What we know:
The protein is mainly α. It has 4 helices and no strands. It has helices spanning 2-28, 36-40, 45-52, 55-73. Keywords: Membrane, Transmembrane, Transmembrane helix.
Amino acid sequence: xxxxxxxxxxxxxxxxxxxxxxxxxxxxxxxxxxxxxxxxxxxxxxxxxxxxxxxxxxxxxxxxxxxxxxxxxx
Length: 74
């Protein structure tokens, strides 16, 4: 009978630990975005990289600015 009390105590304490961990991560915003991971798998990895890479646009802007500077100097 003593083992039954021990098992109940262990299971309740484990449940309390999981509840505290869940509350902490819920406050940090871990569970805010639940739609995009499900949609992300539908796209090719190349399409995702093109959308996420703002660096390619910055390089184009820098080239365009250098062309403007060259045109002004001429």
